[in-house]
Amino acid sequence: MPRREFDSRWVHQTKVLLRRATMALQPMYMIFGIPVSNLSLSEAAQKVVALCNIGGKHMVVTLNPEMAVEAYKRPKYQQVLAHASLIVPDGIGIVFASLLSREPLLKGVVRGRELAFELFKICEERGLTLVLLGADIDVLHKTTLKITSTYHNIRILNEIVGPQINAESGKAANVEDDLRLVSQINEIRPDILLVGFGHPKQELWLGNYMESLDIKVGIGVGGTFDYISGEVPVPPSFIKKMGVEWVWRLCNQPNRIFRIVKAVIVFPILYIFSLFKLMFHVEH
Question: What is residue 3's predicted lDDT score, i.e. its pLDDT?
């Protein structure tokens, strides 16, 4: 076997073993073939920092019911999510579904925006660097101002506007735009890359280019930048505690009605259907 081919296989196997080792000691709940970790908010943030320190490149996913439905329908998206180094439940629907499993997510929801703030605090304390990647320069700029006004010593190295990403392929219409974006990020070499393209674009884009990116951790943060920047109001605490953020989003963003229907209606139907399929398989 040629030396180059041997080295390539060795590196790949090492990465696979490293990813498995980071996940092996924590309880997992499997939903639609996606392993979700049972971690509290602070534990999830510490896990992200641990991934920064152990070497390799890691994708972190905050899984909500809409994403689970997308993964159920699209094997490619499911594979990208399943290969992430850390997946946490960003939605009460995921937690409720887990209660029917042997590994219920009893530590609750880990919302993407709340995980981001936990990371900002830790990054300021430990000197970890960040790059914000999104689709709107005004939102990114307001987000940076809000973060730096709260965490004065945090190191946000840049705010980068990405190209329009195709939701099917996870790539720009012109691949050269993606390559220029990867090159721009690699010149900065942040510890953590926060990608706010929205799902499934952000996870597919990271899945496509993670190996080419000179980063330690990449996280798809969805609408987190919109919340931090003030473009979208944050739900009151009683709404969050009741687990009905979808009502808040529907009132403030009625254009999201189809996504909300997917999370609140389609997801439970698909999950119950998958349980019946599992029962049928076991019986036969």
Answer: 54
pLDDT tens for 151-163 read 999 999 999 999 9
Length of the chain (residues):
284
Whole-prediction pTM value?
0.86
Domains in the chain: boundaries: 26-235
Hey, what amino acid is at 176?
E
Alpha-carbon distance of 195 to 206, in angstroms, equals: 8
Q: How far is CA 193 from the centre of its chain?
A: 11
CB within 8 Å of 114: residues ≥ 6 apart: 41
Q: Note every long-range contact of 43-49, with CB atoms under 8 Å and residues 24 or more positions apart, other chains counting.
A: 43/107, 44/86, 44/88, 44/110, 44/115, 44/118, 45/115, 45/118, 45/119, 45/121, 45/122, 46/122, 47/22, 47/86, 48/86, 48/115, 48/119, 48/192, 48/217, 48/219, 49/119, 49/122, 49/126, 49/128
Residue 18: its pLDDT value, please?
Answer: 53
In this prediction, residue 167 carries a pLDDT of: 94
- Residue recorded with tokens 């896990």: 47
- How many CB atoms neighbour CB 168 within 10 A? 12
